[in-house]
Amino acid sequence: MLIGKSKGWFDRWLTPRTTEVSFETGESEKTSPQEKTTAPEPDTMVVIDPIEGGDVTAAPDTSAPETTPAAPATTEAPQTTEAPETTEAPQTTAAPQTTEDEPQTSGSSERPTSGDGKKYVALTFDDGPDMRYTSSTKRILDILEQYGAKATFFTLASQLDYNGVADENTGETFAQRNAKLIKRASDLGMEIGTHTYNHKNLNTLSTEEIQKELYSAIEKVEAITGKEIQIMRPPYGNANQKVQDAINMPMIIWDVDSLDWESKDPDKIYSRVMSTVQPGSIILMHDIYNTTADGVALVVPALIEKGYTIVTVSELYRIYGKELQPHHVYMAPWYDD
Ligand SMILES: [Zn+2]
């Protein structure tokens, strides 16, 4: 089908354009959750691409947050790419420091703070809701609700395409169930961002393809929540200059990688997060694994015990007095300019 400039959502997001974009209806089918159950999960796919100039300088690689709280590896380009989701090894090196937790709130004059002396952190979940046979998103929502915590879900629109029957009794499809999960999250006050439609590496796409991946996903999810999506997370954290130019919204990366997709171990998720988190951190997790839900059950009360208030990404930036801008990549408010 063709979607032209007459579509409201399209006009809202796109910079002026002169041609129409063709949306291939069959495309989402090819990467439906049905197939993903056997295929490598999106974030396990290794796609580091030191190909394009800007990518090599990349940023908050997984080892960065641990080295020193002062400056994650790169000087000023956490936005160019970085790909914690795609790296395989760094996390096992460099034992996370346990001293990063406290100092920032009161000390550090250079570093941005929340301003009220309190500690805030943002939990973020990618690739959901759910995989075909997991109930991880539901469980994570239950935990967040129980503790009064908020989180940001960077949803993958293709998770809403699989029409296999999820519930024999009701006939409910996986697509319907996942749509309900997004609605529930939104109604609970969670922030719904987008992680595009098909989890492609945007660095490899044309501008038109990038925008199609983004705006078709936005349209689909906004129809469920009735709320405008304000932020996006590029798959693999990949957002080179072309991607940044193409995407007319803030791109949110992270500074703490739980490595949940790799360890699939709640205890490791817990220790990884708790040893690398600091005030103003944005924590990466994936709500498609039951092991991640188990990890969240450990992490959320532990963060609260440590004095953190768990908020959405947009709220975190508001608290830090920073306005998110389109065409920019953000890692975490304690670090970003
Ligand atoms: Zn992802």
Overview of the molecule:
Strands 3, 4, 5, 7, 8 and 9 form a six-stranded parallel β-sheet that branches. This protein has a two-stranded antiparallel sheet with strand order 1-2. The N terminus is likely disordered. By secondary structure, the protein is α/β, with parallel strands linked by helices. Strand 4, helix 8 and strand 5 form a beta-alpha-beta unit. The longest helix has 19 residues. It is globular, with a radius of gyration of 19 Å. It has one domain: Alpha-Beta Barrel (TIM Barrel), CATH 3.20.20. The protein is built from 14 helices and ten strands. The structure holds zinc ion. Zinc ion (ZN) binds next to loops.
SSE order, one letter for each helix or strand = EHEHHHHHEHEHEHHEEHHEHEHE
Which small-molecule species are bound to the chains here? zinc ion
What do we call the CATH topology?
TIM Barrel
The Cα radius of gyration reads 19 Å
At the fourth level of CATH, the homologous superfamily is Glycoside hydrolase/deacetylase
Q: Based on helices, strands and strand pairing, what is the structural class?
A: alpha/beta
Report the helical percentage.
25-40%
Query: CATH first level: which class?
Result: Alpha Beta
Which regions are unreliable across 5 or more consecutive residues at pLDDT < 50? 1-108
> How many domain modules?
1
Shape: globular
**Strand-residue proportion:** 5-15%
What can be said about this structure in brief?
The chain is an alpha/beta fold and 337 residues long.
Which secondary structure elements does this structure contain, and how are they paired or packed?
Blueprint: E1 2-3, H1 8-13, E2 21-22, H2 27-30, H3 33-36, H4 53-56, H5 64-67, H6 103-106, E3 119-126, H7 136-147, E4 152-155, H8 174-187, E5 191-194, H9 207-225, H10 241-246, E6 251-252, E7 256-257, H11 260-263, H12 266-276, E8 282-286, H13 290-305, E9 308-311, H14 313-319, E10 329-330
Parallel strand pairs: 3-4, 3-8, 3-9, 4-5, 6-10, 7-8
Antiparallel strand pairs: 1-2
Helix pairs in contact: 7-13, 12-13
Bound molecules: zinc ion (ZN).
